[in-house]
Amino acid sequence: MRGRSNARQMKRRRREAQRKVRRRQEAEGMSTASHPTRPNRTSVYETVEEEEQGRIEAVVEHARVLREQLPRLLAELSQIRDPRNPLMLKHKLTTLMVYGILMFVLHSGSRRTTNEKLSAPAMRDTLMQLFPDLESIPHHDTLCRLLAAIEPEGIEAAQVGLVRSLIRDKKFSDHLVEHCYTIAFDGTQKMVRRLLPDDPWLQRKVGGEGKKREQYYLYVLEANLVLSNGVSIPLMSEFLDYHKGDNDRQKQDSEQRGFFRLSQRLKEAFPHLPIMVLLDGLFAQGPVMSRLREYNWHYMIVLQDGSLPHVWQEYQGLRRLLTEQDRLSQLWGDRHQHFEMLNDIEYRYGENGRKVERIHLVVCEETWEEVDREGNVVQRHSKWAWISDLPFSRETVHVRCNLAGRRRWCIEEDILVEKRQGYNYEHCYAENWNAMRGYHYLMRIGHLLNVLASFCSRLIRAFKDRGPQGFIAWLSNTLSGRWLHVAELQPRLTASFQLRLVLPVPQLPVLIR
Asked: What is the reported pLDDT for 201?
């Protein structure tokens, strides 16, 4: 009993300490970031008629978002060469592609589950009426065979084309950083197998001494368009390939090699787009900076403590000479931030230091208060550092560091969403190399469409109330039931529509004089 009494006292102590911290932060002009959760309440609908109307509204608006984007996607997808015998075709290529996209939009899961779910009569009839390009519902093996036979890069080209059209329509123009579109890169492991599924998979030895065994794994380098408000848009993927490594030196493919291939494809896709690249500490190296300078791209690269020792020595030696113009202190969210900027550092690399890059360094030290498990208020501290090709100043450091450099985390969160929240990133839909990549690209398109829907002005409240996964589950339940009379909804579905995105606004800092 004494233990329970102590636990209750500890809980009250923590709550009181948290209230004191919040009051102190509010007195200093700080604003704590909110983390809204789904409301804990009973249904907002009082009658069956109200629920039916709410479900119809959600289906119609979600379908309108997809119907507006599908023509752009299908125009690109129709360019893929279909290797099948035209005399024996039952399903058009575009029909199979719409089926594959809807599989991920609706979080259907595995191939077997998709077969059962999308071919159910009620779901089948509803989807075919909502999306006229879905002329039939195939068996999922038909899609798998098609993906194994085509060049899957054409599917990604459709995804890139859709993002290009959104950029052209200025959907993201209010959330740029110094007039640049910020693109974050990050690598992640997709799958692991004990037996080799297909030749391009990478391999490594795992296990303790005397128990070493071969393991085969799949690794992908992702690129996302990350806006200054933290919204992340799936863009491109680069699969690491065993045969693209340095076979003469017995080195496998790596993230660095994948970055050079992916950056080249990105440049070809967006030759004139002003871009700022966000990279982690793995890419703080001369050849990467040289490539970015060659492409006329700006960059923000995380600088870890052990990376580029000469740059850190330069910073430590010149730190005491920094003036007030090279320092900035501010409040941002619930944190005190202190920036120190050192511009025009000469970084040499290559044989005998013959190659030179001129870079600029910023170091951010921040402190904040937290309440520990015992109810004590403790001070936390962290340090961040970035290098860039652009000089830092008091006017630009907040935007470049907080709204660009730190936003690189958003791609990590995005990958986590794809792995754990309905998109089955780590599921092996096919062991065939082409088919596996085709499913991956379809998954990224499905995620992109759901991101657009989640910020659509007419759906943003529904997504917030139910959460992304909850909303998609609710939507699927509506599509598979008898809630809809699609023929009666055709006038609304075919009415003119313009995608209006309601994107969040970043927090503003408060300068400390």
From this structure: 94
Q: What's the CA gap between 400 and 21, in Å, rounded?
A: 29
214, 489 in Cβ contact below 8 A? no
Structure tokens that stand for 152 in this block: 């899957």
Which residue from 261, 193, 258 is spatially nearest to 221, judged by alpha carbons?
258
Beta bridge partners, 234, equal 224
Q: Is the pTM of this model over 0.90?
A: yes
**pLDDT, tens digit, for every residue of 370-400?**
888 888 888 999 999 999 999 999 999 999 9
Beta 213-226 vs 181-193: how paired, if at all? antiparallel
Q: CA–CA separation, 176 vs 21, rounded Å? A: 33
At residue 412, the pLDDT reads 96
CA 471 to chain centroid = 19
Handedness of CA 475, 477, 481, 483 (dihedral sign): negative
Model pLDDT for residues 158-204, shown as the tens digit of each residue: 999 999 999 999 999 999 999 999 999 999 999 999 999 999 999 99
CA distance 76 to 55: 32
Q: How far apart are CA 105 and CA 101, in angstroms?
A: 6
> Distance from first CA to last CA of the chain, Å, rounded?
52
Residues of the chain by 3-state class (helix, strand, coil), percent to 5: 45, 20, 30
* Contact assessment for residue 337 and residue 383, using Cβ atoms and an 8 Å cutoff: no
Whole-angstrom distance, CA of residue 397 vs CA of residue 405: 10
